Amino acid sequence: MQILHENLEKGYLVVKVDSSDKFDTLDQMGKLMVEKGFVKESYVEAVKEREKVFPTGLPMEAFGVAIPHTDSIHVNKKAIMCGIFEQPNEFVMMGTDDDKVQCEMAFMLAIISPDDQIAMLAQLVETCQDVSVLHTLKEAKDMDAIVEIMDGLMS
Question: Whole-model pTM?
Answer without folding.
Answer: 0.94
